[in-house]
């Protein structure tokens, strides 16, 4: 079979960018991205795409209507496709068996049932969503139990490694593409067909093929390793604050060892995003189910340390402000989970804001890309101690950083947007209440300059000479 038509179920952060790049690099293949949500598909067909991703607009504009289509006509797209990507969401279960840990596979199962219902010819079905090991077996069972006469399926695992904010570059210049398939002649033929798609732009040596289960586990393992590096450096940031060492210097020194490498050693207020926590919890649940409790406990600690880092930072803000933020105006700069994305899923800013709101603070929030409604949504659902209406009264969303900081007791920087480095802090100092506090949760500001202006400054993993922290003054240890 030569792949002429591809269908993708799920037009989200993965399905949209991935298929746009496939369409760009494979002009001979017709790519249709489908979603159950008509609103999402309408946005993909409009001038304002549903997600912000540098470089994505250009790719979509170049291909849309030529060989790239966004559609709600799932039946037609499935029927005409040779290959179907399943790129649906796999959130952590919020109830029932495995609550808070296991991946909820209801959307995967739903997608498999749709394919089984609608397909009338042979299909290669590719699991692109991140799933627990052996999830392909579920898809296989559903498809093969409902096969129409003459229809055959091959199921492949092809996890996605793109990071938000750099998705287009990550897709165009992928370190590797991973494809897992069944160890049968038909399975291996399907693997080669998907390899052929990627070989339009990825060097063959960077396309790794494995068995299905290794491929599924490698995705969870890659995220667990990356998150573990962040928790490791964040754990050391606490040691730095307590001793006078500087975590950036430690990271530079440690990262120079070529066996360790310099990337992903940036101490922060904690990792966020829709993947790291969900995928580690997924791995932990898998280990528990396999009676590997020591392994589960090992990875659980990565998540625990991340929670500790978020709590530690927020506690520092409150303690520095004389242990009360009630009725104080606090400017929050950055709400997305990292720069260059409008995505707020599991953003550490949510924890910081909710805790401050619970303590009675009035928040003035600015983020260059997050929509106002999204901020309200994140802060009012779920787990708030106050009623949503009360919470809303204590939040104001701003269009600029300058208006957010006006009259504020403190500025809390939660996301490392480049534009925050360019702000005129002399101007900001003038309009803030005194003493004026800055809490740099991303270590991106010029702290010496801020201290010279007159700010009390605190950051992650470094003790600054003028911190303003009651606990820090005359004390060798920070909370
Ligand atoms: N976001 C990332 O950066 C990233 C990177 C790598 C892997 N992943 C994984 O990829 C998967 C998708 O993540 P995402 O961030 O794109 O999720 P998302 O929530 O942005 O998008 C998923 C989309 O699937 C749609 N959907 C659900 N069931 C459907 C069905 N049966 N038919 C058609 N559409 C359906 C939903 O309406 C939604 O729009 C997850 O498993 C995630 O872990 C995400
Ligand atoms: O040194 C670092 C690097 C990252 N982060 C934080 O970690 C989180 C995740 O960042 P990143 O990994 O860059 O973004 P994601 O889009 O979540 O991408 C991760 O999750 C995706 C979904 O599975 C994978 O495909 C990617 O390979 C993997 O990097 C963010 O809050 C970052 O601010 C740090 O605190 N310090």
TrEMBL record:
- The residues responsible for catalysis, as annotated, are 275
Key words, A-Z:
NAD, Oxidoreductase
Q: Which GO terms describe its molecular function?
A: NAD binding; UDP-glucose 6-dehydrogenase activity
Under which pathway is this protein filed? Nucleotide-sugar biosynthesis; UDP-alpha-D-glucuronate biosynthesis; UDP-alpha-D-glucuronate from UDP-alpha-D-glucose: step 1/1
Q: Residue ranges of the UDP-glucose/GDP-mannose dehydrogenase C-terminal domain?
A: 331-447
InterPro entries, alphabetized: 6-PGluconate_DH-like_C_sf, NAD(P)-bd_dom_sf, UDP-Glc/GDP-Man, UDP-Glc/GDP-Man_DH_C, UDP-Glc/GDP-Man_DH_C_sf, UDP-Glc/GDP-Man_DH_dimer, UDP-Glc/GDP-Man_DH_N, UDPglc_DH_euk
List, alphabetically, the Pfam families matched.
Answer: UDPG_MGDP_dh (PF00984), UDPG_MGDP_dh_C (PF03720), UDPG_MGDP_dh_N (PF03721)
Indicate the enzyme's highest-level EC class: oxidoreductase
Catalysed reaction equations from the record: UDP-alpha-D-glucose + 2 NAD(+) + H2O = UDP-alpha-D-glucuronate + 2 NADH + 3 H(+)
GO cellular component terms, A-Z? nucleus
Residue positions annotated to bind NAD(+) are 10-15, 35, 40, 88-92, 129-130, 164, 275-278, 345
Listed EC numbers = 1.1.1.22
An individual GO BP term: UDP-glucuronate biosynthetic process
Q: Which residues form the signal peptide?
A: none
Q: What does this protein do?
A: Involved in the biosynthesis of glycosaminoglycans; hyaluronan, chondroitin sulfate, and heparan sulfate.
Q: Please state which protein family the record places this protein in.
A: Belongs to the UDP-glucose/GDP-mannose dehydrogenase family.
Report the NCBIfam families cross-referenced here.
NDP-sugDHase
Q: What is this protein called?
A: UDP-glucose 6-dehydrogenase
Protein's organism: Papilio machaon (Old World swallowtail butterfly)
Q: What is the lineage of its organism?
A: Eukaryota, Metazoa, Ecdysozoa, Arthropoda, Hexapoda
């Amino acid at each position: 079979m030569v792949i002429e038509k591809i269908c993708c179920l799920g037009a989200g952060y993965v399905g949209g960018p991935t298929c746009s790049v496939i369409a760009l690099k494979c002009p001979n293949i017709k790519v249709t991205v489908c979603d159950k949500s008509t609103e999402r598909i309408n946005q993909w067909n409009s001038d304002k795409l549903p997600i912000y991703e540098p470089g994505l607009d250009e790719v979509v504009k170049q291909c849309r209507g030529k060989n790239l289509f966004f559609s709600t006509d799932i039946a037609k797209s499935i029927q005409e496709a040779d290959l179907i990507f399943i790129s649906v969401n796999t959130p952590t279960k919020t109830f029932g068996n495995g609550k808070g840990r296991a991946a909820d596979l209801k959307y995967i199962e739903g997608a498999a049932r749709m394919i089984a219902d609608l397909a009338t010819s042979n299909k290669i079905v590719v699991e692109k969503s991140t799933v627990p090991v052996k999830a392909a077996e579920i898809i296989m069972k559903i498809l093969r139990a409902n096969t129409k006469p003459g229809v055959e399926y091959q199921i492949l695992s092809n996890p996605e490694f793109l990071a938000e904010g750099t998705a287009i570059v990550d897709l165009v210049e992928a370190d590797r593409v991973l494809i897992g398939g069944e160890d049968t002649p038909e399975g291996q033929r399907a693997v080669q067909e998907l390899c052929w798609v990627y070989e339009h732009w990825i060097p063959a040596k960077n396309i790794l093929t494995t068995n299905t289960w290794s491929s599924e586990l490698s995705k969870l393992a890659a995220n667990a390793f990356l998150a573990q590096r962040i928790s490791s450096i964040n754990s050391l940031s606490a040691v730095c604050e307590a001793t006078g060492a500087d975590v950036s210097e430690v990271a530079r020194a440690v990262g120079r060892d070529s066996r360790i490498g310099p990337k992903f050693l940036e101490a922060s207020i904690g990792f966020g995003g829709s993947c790291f926590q969900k995928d580690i919890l997924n791995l932990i649940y898998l280990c528990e189910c396999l009676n590997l409790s020591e392994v589960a406990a090992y990875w659980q600690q990565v998540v625990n340390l991340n929670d500790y880092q978020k709590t530690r930072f927020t506690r520092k803000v409150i303690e520095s402000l004389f242990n009360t933020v009630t009725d104080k105006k606090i400017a929050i700069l950055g709400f997305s989970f990292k720069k260059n994305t409008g995505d707020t899923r599991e953003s550490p800013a949510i924890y910081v804001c909710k805790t401050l709101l619970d303590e009675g603070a009035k928040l003035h929030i600015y983020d260059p890309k997050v929509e106002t409604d999204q901020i309200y949504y994140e802060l009012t659902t779920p787990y708030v101690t106050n009623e949503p209406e009360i919470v809303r009264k204590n939040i104001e969303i701003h269009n600029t950083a300058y208006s957010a900081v006006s009259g504020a007791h403190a500025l809390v920087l939660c996301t490392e947007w480049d534009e925050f480095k360019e702000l005129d802090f002399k101007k900001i100092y003038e309009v803030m209440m005194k003493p004026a506090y800055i809490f740099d949760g991303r270590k991106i500001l010029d702290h010496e300059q801020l201290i010279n202006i007159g700010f009390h400054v605190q950051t992650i993993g470094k003790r600054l000479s003028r911190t303003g922290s009651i606990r820090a003054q005359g004390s060798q240890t920070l909370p």
